[in-house]
């Protein structure tokens, strides 16, 4: 079961790859939500598991997440919880979108939030640890820094990933 991709060379099948577990890292941006929809479509069509991941980075809440084992101030803890609530709303939205694509059976969607200082490393480690076959990621995220073609996270995930990466606008 799963998605089968054929690479063709002048009509001859040269390689066959099966995708049965798909990872979509999200940050709430339109690009990441578009990537989630692509992940849903692929999961529904080819009966693949779908993992939706958000990496909670210190920059999202004012640089206040767990520095070298120090105590996190109450205000920062509150901001972290508010951010997690927002992420859970994104997860719920993705699950609702999945209902329109799941005709015969419900799509298996797992969600996770990881707190980390390195978004790229967290995505790569998660994909390796969970035997992900395909990463579907948006071209750019929520940050104001824009690259010419790709966001820095998408570009680095594509560079360091052990599996194929589908980049979505």
Could you walk me through the main structural features you see in this protein, from its secondary elements to its overall organization?
The protein has 169 residues and is α/β, with parallel strands linked by helices. The chain has a single domain, classed as Rossmann fold. The protein is 37% helix and 26% strand. It has helices at residues 30-46, 74-99, 119-129, 152-160, and strands at residues 3-9, 12-19, 21-25, 49-56, 109-115, 134-138, 165-168. The strands form 2 sheets. It has a 5-stranded parallel beta sheet with strand order 5-4-3-6-7, sandwiched between helices. It has a two-stranded antiparallel sheet with strand order 1-2. Helix 1 packs across helix 2 and helix 3 (119-129) runs parallel beside helix 4 (152-160). The longest helix has 26 residues, at 74-99. It is globular and about 45 Å long. The model is unreliable at 144-149 (pLDDT under 50).
